């Protein structure tokens, strides 16, 4: 007597739970479709536009983050060094080169959810284009480590994996025509356990 309703109820629970879990999994896995990747740096230039795919819109709403408009800026993230190894707080890195043409850029280390890492009081946890020391040709080196270094130093805590977030503000790279020929800084590991 209760066999058919039980089977129907079980099937509905499995269907709804599977649908909800697959949607949540997709939202946590990606900002959306249309990612560009340049030298290990990844950005989603269409995630903030009106024509963004439904997953990008839902990801943005779920995260509660305000993204830049296509004419305002572009945010790149890097989770691996130039050799493809995951960035980790137990190692030191050197980020060198140049950023694409931009009026202002910012750089900070973040956890997997994009929240800035706290390396402790009085330690530089962010850099920007106005405060970075440059060579005569405009290139720069930034050492990313848990121990203090001379020159440009970005402090990170002794944690597990992290990501670097480079935001370009007022840049032609944010427009679809500016995406070709981008040159991004290179991240290389310079030692572990230091």
UniProtKB/TrEMBL annotation:
Family matches, as InterPro entries: DUF1214, DUF1214_C_sf, UCP009471
Signal peptide boundaries: none
Pfam families for the chain: DUF1214
Domain DUF1214: 72-171
Domain of life: Bacteria
Protein name: DUF1214 domain-containing protein
């Amino acid at each position: 007597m209760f066999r058919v309703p039980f089977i129907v109820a079980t099937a509905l629970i499995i269907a709804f739970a599977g649908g909800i879990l697959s949607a949540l999994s997709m939202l946590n896995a990606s900002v959306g479709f249309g990612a560009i990747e340049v030298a290990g740096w990844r950005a989603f230039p269409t995630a903030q536009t009106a024509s963004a795919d439904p997953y990008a819109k839902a990801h943005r709403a779920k995260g509660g983050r305000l993204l830049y408009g296509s004419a305002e800026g572009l945010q790149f993230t890097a989770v691996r060094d130039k050799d493809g190894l995951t960035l980790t707080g137990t190692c030191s890195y050197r980020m060198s080169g140049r950023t694409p043409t931009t009026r202002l850029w910012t750089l900070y280390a973040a956890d997997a959810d994009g929240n800035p890492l706290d390396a402790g009081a009085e330690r530089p946890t962010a850099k920007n284009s106005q405060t970075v020391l440059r060579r005569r040709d405009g290139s720069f080196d930034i050492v990313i480590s848990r121990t203090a270094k001379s020159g440009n130093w970005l402090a990170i805590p002794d944690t597990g994996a992290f990501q670097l977030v480079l935001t370009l503000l007022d840049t032609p790279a944010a427009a679809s025509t500016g995406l070709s020929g981008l040159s991004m800084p290179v991240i290389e590991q310079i030692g572990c356990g230091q």
